[in-house]
What we know:
By secondary structure, the protein is an alpha/beta fold.
Amino acid sequence: MNNLSNNQGYKRDKQKFKRYEKSLPVHRIELDVRFLERIGDTTKRHYQFSAIDDYTGLSILRIYEHNNQVNAIRFVDYTLSRLTFRAEVIQTDHGSEFGSQFHWHVLDKGIRHVYIKPRRPQLNGKVERSHRIDDEEFYGLLDGIVIDDTTLINERLREWENFYNYGKPHPVLNGQTPYERFREKTGLSSV
């Protein structure tokens, strides 16, 4: 093995990673759900449903008290009503909330529903990364504050979502906001 020719030896990659993205905005929407640790002394459980456009990074967030297919269907309808464009593919993991009812609901809307490979959350990397940003920059500010009202949490989350989409420059988008990138690539003026 030590006598390999030069063309078969180890070659160092010049670029450590390449950001994966679809070639068109709105081609693929990544959906995911995460359990939120109890905020303060509240006894209620909360789940954050997240959708993010694979190309622009536009994010839509909503909190529900239950993690089930009914809320997943409500969330996908909410997401589609907020977008001014038509999504072509919705990508999810194999969570129980994305079961057969959800799958057929998405197909009935004329949108493909694809599952990522089991135990591969990195295939839903953009929405997973957005969860980390939400933790650091939104939920970190709520440390010690008790919010027991889902409606109030959703109002605050909507304010955060607007800042994330319209006011926060993203390094992976060369300093653009997701909205600026969307406008640049589509020529449309509203989302």
